[in-house]
Write a structure and sequence with these properties.
With 503 residues, the chain is α/β, with parallel strands linked by helices. The protein has helices at 42-48, 54-64, 85-101, 123-135, 153-158, 173-188, 215-229, 264-280, 292-298, 325-333, 345-354, 429-432, 452-456, and strands at residues 13-20, 36-39, 68-77, 106-111, 141-145, 161-164, 195-201, 233-240, 252-258, 306-310, 338-343, 359-364, 375-390, 400-410, 414-419, 443-446, 461-465, 500-501. The strands form three sheets. It has an eight-stranded mixed β-sheet with strand order 12-13-14-15-11-16-10-17. Strand 4 (106-111), helix 4 and strand 5 (141-145) form a beta-alpha-beta unit. The chain starts with 12 loop residues before the first strand and ends with a strand. The relative contact order is 0.14. This is Microcystinase C. Residues 13-297 form the Microcystin LR degradation protein MlrC N-terminal domain.
């Protein structure tokens, strides 16, 4: 943990910035600057102060504590392939420019934690390192992360404090931001001086990794109880890295903070105990999902409405969103009406050329994911548009995400939302704000594996299905190199674990 910050004022100026994008390192579709929603200045505060995000939580809590929020730059994009180098360079320079020119006492960051560019395995590590080059270690820097972050030892040595969501599906993004602000306030008033310890494990999780049940639920419960029962402990995070990136030190991480030196021994011991249990249950992180056909046979009647998570083509895990496999299976094995989203820029361009109101036949889907093919569809183009949508569900509630150029195709059997770019479809807002009513459909397909449950639970029964694609857990099919050896690709025995002092 960096040492030496001296500010003792009651009210402080806090520079706030955001860089949020989860990378799928093996996706063929890279992420350009145009995929990012960007804000700066007053606009950044106004558009995020009510959002259910780390940034929103930071802004609201700092304001409530009487501090002044100094907006730097905010950039967030849907999950996707590696960020183009030029895009990252632009975002990085905007944040660094604010760090050079603004007057502030501390820095609070909203970072996904698993962002890669074409030439950088850890964008967050590079960004925070560059900020430190400007501020030195006299300025405290704190950050809130997604729990699927690529948490490296170097990154956490650069931070005074870092904390992650405690839930998957993510229901505590705003609370994570509030915690970042609260800890920073306590640091600036000298009530605490966080001391961090981390254990880093060479393994990837293959499923069964929700925090509502299973091994992670038990581990989080034990950690929360330990923190609550020891007044010298401050916080813990269990990082479950997105399993679709390659890079040095990719793996799981358990990080525990003490409030001050009095809690150092307890923090170190807790990180080791938790990591040892985590490693010991590594074989439990697998799941068995039903096929689309089996799910449809189980729910063969007219009720309930089904919301199907296309696990193999999860845009929330960085997949391209181009698969029509689940949609095609629903057409074959059900007579029910289907609403689905598919990314296909060529099909969108055909719709744009045909114009709204036209009836069109076209080949749809399968343009980017290896092994997938297109299928023929037809219907009436009922709407063309280009814009954003508002999240209605718990995850990132109130946030506006990019929908981009889209076309709606309708016929008796189905309604299709055809998008030019991949869309985070875990929320009904992506359909509703494209003008699609969900009241009279029977099956809704989303490109999500977890988070859609929190947003669609009022619409029907939510189920995940096994489907082909880049976000199914088949690590042996991906060209991992830098992170190896790593479980389960390699036979690894860890005779002992080490808790690293992050000061």
């Amino acid at each position: 943990m960096p040492q030496g910050f001296q500010n003792m004022h009651t009210s402080h100026r806090i520079l706030v910035a955001q860089l949020f994008q989860e990378t799928h390192g093996f996706s063929p579709v890279h992420t350009p600057l145009t995929s990012f929603e960007i804000e700066e200045g007053v606009d950044m505060i106004e558009k995020n102060e009510k959002s259910d995000s780390v940034l929103g939580g930071i802004i609201r809590e700092l304001t409530a504590l009487g501090h002044v929020v100094v907006p730097a730059f905010a950039a967030r994009a849907r999950c996707g392939g590696v960020v183009q180098d030029a895009a990252y360079a632009f975002i990085k320079e905007r944040i660094l420019a604010a760090a050079r020119s603004s007057r502030y006492d501390a820095i609070a960051l909203d970072l996904h934690g698993c962002t890669q560019s074409a030439s950088c395995d850890s964008v967050e590590e590079d960004l925070v390192s560059s900020i430190r080059d400007i501020t030195g270690y006299r300025i405290p820097i704190v950050a809130g992360f997604d729990l699927h972050a690529h948490a490296t030892e170097k990154l956490f040595r650069l931070l005074n404090f870092g904390t992650a969501y405690k839930t998957n599906p993510h229901a505590d993004a705003a609370q994570t931001g509030e915690r970042v602000a609260q800890v920073l306030g306590s640091m600036l008033s000298r009530r605490i001086e966080p001391q961090g310890f981390g254990v880093f494990l060479p393994m990837l999780l293959g499923g069964n990794d929700e925090t509502t049940n299973g091994p992670l639920a038990k581990l989080h419960h034990k950690m929360q109880s330990a923190i609550a029962s020891d007044g010298n402990l401050l916080d813990y995070s269990i990082f479950n890295v997105n399993p679709f990136i390659d890079g040095t030190d990719v793996g799981q991480a358990v990080i525990v903070y003490a409030k001050n030196e009095n809690g150092v021994a307890a923090a170190k011991a807790l990180s080791l105990t938790a990591a040892t249990e985590f490693w010991g249950c590594r074989h439990q992180f697998i799941h068995q999902l039903p096929s689309v056909r089996d799910l449809l046979q189980t729910f063969s009647g007219t009720q309930p409405r089904l919301i199907i998570g296309d696990f193999g083509d999860r845009v929330l895990a960085g997949a391209p969103g181009d698969s029509i496999y689940a949609f095609n299976e629903c057409l074959q094995y059900s007579e029910r009406h289907i609403t689905a989203i598919v990314t296909d820029p060529a099909a969108y361009e055909q719709c744009l050329k045909a114009m709204e109101g036209a009836t069109i036949s076209l080949s749809l889907g399968g343009g980017n994911t290896p092994g997938l093919s297109a299928m023929d569809v037809f219907g009436k183009i009922t709407r063309l548009g280009n814009g954003v949508f508002r999240n209605r569900g718990t995850f990132m509630k109130g946030a506006k995400l990019r929908l981009g150029p889209f076309a709606v195709i309708e016929q008796a059997r189905y309604t299709l939302l055809v998008t030019h770019d991949a869309v985070m479809s875990q929320d009904p807002g992506c359909y509703l704000d494209a003008g699609i009513s969900l009241d009279n459909t029977d099956v809704i397909i989303v490109k999500s594996g977890y988070h859609f449950k929190m947003a669609f639970e009022d619409y029907g029964d939510c189920h995940i299905v096994e489907t082909p694609g880049l976000s199914g857990f088949h690590p042996e099919q991906l060209p991992f190199e830098k992170c190896r050896p790593i479980y389960p690709l390699d036979p690894i025995e860890l005779p002992f674990l080490e808790s690293v002092d992050l000061q």
